[in-house]
Design a protein that fits this description.
The protein is of the alpha+beta class. It contains 2 helices and 8 strands, in the order αββββββαββ. Helices cover 22% and strands 45% of the residues. The chain is elongated and about 55 Å long.
């Protein structure tokens, strides 16, 4: 009976150790700093008969002395013509002290009558903290820090611009482009 009690204690000790490591990592994340994200604008890049393609431009700053690996965007775009919500694989490393601008795609379907002129964006980007322990805790789902962002403004129409290409999410299928008539 004492052995069973000792095994339970060891199990509690191990789970307590993992919880303490996760808490320490969370505190370190606060000290290291989140990436700073500013929404720079939203551009309509393609006007279609049933859908418009938009590019959400965001500025990223890494204020830390360590590289930050961005994992996944989770965001929504609302306009007076509709709403888009989605995820997009970030696949980017921000070097220490760096600034960069990236574009994330959105597609809004419409009935042809509504024209979007105003936008509102909100979302987050999930990222990995530096270090082996942080990577392990991220992989097992115990520490997945996120930086939030939001903004609003007028839609810019940019003829000839293109949307960024995105890697498909795991478990999703990439559909082929429609055949030309």
């Amino acid at each position: 009976m004492c052995m069973g009690h000792a095994e339970r204690r060891t199990g509690h000790l191990a789970s307590g150790l993992v919880a303490a490591c996760a808490a320490s990592l969370t505190l370190l994340a606060g000290c290291a700093g989140d990436p700073r994200i500013t929404v720079a604008g939203v551009d309509r890049v393609v006007k279609g008969a049933a859908a418009d393609e938009y590019s959400v431009r965001v500025r990223l700053e890494n204020p830390t002395g360590e590289s930050l690996v961005l994992d996944r965007w989770n965001y929504s775009l609302e306009t007076d013509a509709g709403r888009y919500s989605g995820e997009w694989v970030a696949s980017r490393t921000l070097p220490p002290g760096s600034n960069t601008e990236v574009a994330i795609p959105a597609v809004l379907t419409h009935d042809g009558a509504a024209v979007a002129s105003r936008w509102r964006v909100s979302g987050s980007v999930r990222y990995l903290l530096p270090g082996r322990l942080a990577e392990t805790l991220f992989d097992i789902g115990l520490s997945r820090p996120e930086a939030m962002f939001s903004g609003e403004g007028q839609i810019a129409v940019k003829a000839g611009d293109t949307l960024p290409t995105a890697a498909p999410l795991p478990g999703t299928e990439t559909l082929p482009a429609p055949a030309s008539p």
